[in-house]
Design a protein that fits this description.
Length: about 375
């Protein structure tokens, strides 16, 4: 064990996990290659405003910063003569840190980068469109090391042919911090089905993490309350969710047109529901959602404060939020409160590329 592979014995194999935090909130601006807001392309579910463009561009700049750090790491392997016999994975631990990204089951929340580099074994520049999961990394590492898995694995080695036979990828979301929600999904190459087990809850119910880290939350809520979002943008700001969402990824890669009730997709819907039910029963042994998890009858019917966060702070000794989660009240702030939040975010979002301004706190 050591903090760096330079500490190992001569010729000793090594495993290293190196974490880059720049693409998490806070986003790091890139003074070497700043990105103008006019040069970014937004997904259609975000409003096209300078505020949103700048927040999105800041995220892209943070990726550039990480990219250069990875380049230096790979160069070190080259300089030390280790590159040809070192298998490198570059992945993300979750989807992007944006509204409708991380913690949700759309591709923006589930798809992560997956790049392999092994000059002696993996062809450079190749692109593979197989359905791949981060569960496959364990199987791949064991395969590369010539080790038989001691127990059956859900993942497949990316160095073999089994992964190409995979037809579906599954995912689940439940408690995130003290925010309770429950979603399940199944994805094929062409379709994605999401089952919302708590459709009575808003997508954007209170999350201390998101309201304190995502500037775009303020912009979206303000525009939604003023009726200035498009239908595709407003759908994610609704007070409840459909029980089933189904997307044809061939024509709708941004997952904004729910075709779950379209008769043309009835067979696809039935197929994916069957596969999802099998996975829930046989793999994750899904117990569904309990009344305690829903906090049935626990909280008042509506929020008596201007913000849900204020109410939670003032009643933290009266309720067991660890057990019941936060109330599902929505919206989580009044319009005037969201406007205050946006005003606080403004100088931070538009900070200069070489600025060291800290993210505002206390929302």
């Amino acid at each position: 064990m050591g903090k760096d592979w330079s500490e190992r014995e001569p010729g000793q194999p090594f495993f290293a996990r190196i974490t880059f935090m720049e693409t998490h909130r806070d986003f790091h601006r890139d003074p070497e290659r700043p990105i103008a807001i006019e040069d970014v392309e937004l997904p259609p579910y975000y409003p096209d405003t300078p505020f949103v463009r700048r927040d999105w561009a800041n995220g892209l700049e943070s990726m550039q910063v990480v990219d250069r750090k990875i380049g230096k790491l790979l160069q070190r392997l080259e300089d030390e003569g280790l590159a040809d016999n070192t298998l490198v994975f570059f992945i993300g631990d979750h989807g992007r840190c944006h509204v409708r990204g991380k913690q949700f089951l759309y591709d923006g929340g589930l798809r992560i980068p997956m790049i392999m580099r092994w000059p002696s074994k993996v062809e450079a520049g190749g692109v593979n469109d197989d359905l791949v999961s981060s569960l496959d990394i364990c199987a791949t590492v064991l395969d590369a090391a010539g080790i038989e898995p001691p127990v059956p694995l859900h993942g497949h080695s990316l160095l073999g042919d089994e992964v190409a036979k995979r037809e579906y990828i599954f995912a689940a979301r439940d408690r995130m911090g003290d925010t309770h929600d429950a979603m399940r999904s199944v994805r094929s190459k062409d379709f994605k089905l999401i089952m919302n087990l708590m459709p009575e809850r808003a997508y954007c119910q209170y999350s201390g993490y998101k309201e304190g880290a995502y500037p775009m939350m303020a912009e979206l809520n303000i525009l939604h309350m003023k009726g200035q979002l498009t239908a595709a943008q407003a759908r994610f700001m609704a007070a409840s969710k459909p029980k089933i969402e189904l997307f044809d990824l061939r024509s709708d890669p941004h997952e904004i047109n729910n075709v779950a009730d379209d008769p043309e997709y009835a067979d696809v819907k039935e197929e994916l529901l069957t596969e999802l039910a099998s996975w829930r029963e046989n793999v994750i042994h899904d117990q569904g959602v309990s009344d305690d998890f829903r906090a049935v009858g626990v909280f008042p019917e509506s929020c008596p404060e201007p913000t849900v966060g204020q109410w939670i702070s003032r009643h933290k000794d009266e309720y067991d939020f660890k057990k019941y989660g936060y109330p599902g009240w929505y919206p989580t702030r009044t319009l005037s409160e969201w406007e205050k939040v946006r005003e606080i975010w403004e100088p931070y979002v538009f900070r200069a590329p070489d600025s060291h301004m800290k993210r505002p706190k206390g929302f």
